[in-house]
Amino acid sequence: MSLESGIQSLKRGEFVLLFDSAGRENEIDMVTAAEFVTPEHVARMRQHAGGLLCIAIDNDFANSLGLRYMHDILAETSTDKEMIMGLAPYGDRPTFSISINHYQTYTGITDRDRSLTIREMANIFDVDNKKKKFISSFKTPGHVPILLASKGLLQNRQGHTEMSVYMTKLADLTPVTAICEMMDAETYSALSIEKAEKYAKQNAIPLIDGKELLEYAKVH
């Protein structure tokens, strides 16, 4: 499917599937715009994707909240330095920051709780004093990890974090996404591109190839 169909799907508050590339993680993530997330979205990602449900956010937004990468935070603590992830096997540094729960959640893990955390994270984007609102609205550690997109997005890193945030920008949406890797219960590994294509077709969800996104970014 075309990139345009993916953009329209995000605008409608629906899903897109994002394939990074065979030479990288070789994974497909289920992606939706955080501002529209409901408990139904979370339930579907949990049941049909099954990976780690995360919030991906734009780098400038992350800076306005005072967020940092987890590997930098840990480097300044007593954590054994040998344990800190440098480059992952697929060639990039992980984009994890802290994990959060919205203060109105109970355990933080239910579909209702996680959807509230994700949606409220997107809502902060339009607030004047973002950092103050962030600190007063969320607790850490929580059940939804935050991923920080690289500055310059696809110019500097071609991961699902950057690709998903880039797509929200193309759609003129808040640059915050909910993303979850698609797993395969038959092979106990990541869902293959062939199975993802079948799922996308059966469920009328656009499947976007990362190569197409990178080509579009180069031209535009």
Tell me what the structure shows.
By secondary structure, the protein is an alpha+beta fold. It has a single domain (3-219), classed as DHBP synthase. It has helices at residues 3-11, 39-49, 59-65, 70-75, 111-123, 130-137, 160-170, 193-203, 210-219; strands at 16-19, 28-33, 54-57, 96-102, 138-148, 176-181, 183-184, 189-190, 207-209. The strands form two sheets. It has a seven-stranded mixed beta sheet. Helix 2 crosses helix 5 (111-123). The mean pLDDT is 94.
Strand order of the largest sheet: 4-5-3-6-2-1-9
CATH topology: DHBP synthase
Whole-Å distance between the termini? 19 Å
Give the CATH superfamily.
DHBP synthase
Number of helices: 9
> How would the global form be characterised?
globular
CATH class: Alpha Beta
Our count of domains comes out at 1
Order of helices and strands: HEEHEHHEHHEHEEEHEH
Task: Give the name of the CATH architecture.
Answer: Alpha-Beta Complex
C-alpha Rg, in Å?
A: 17 Å
Mean pLDDT: 94
Low-confidence stretches: none
Largest sheet, described in full? 7 strands, mixed
Task: Assess the beta-strand content as a share of residues.
Answer: 15-25%
User: Total strand count, please?
Assistant: 9
Q: Would you tell me the structural class of the helices and strands?
A: alpha+beta
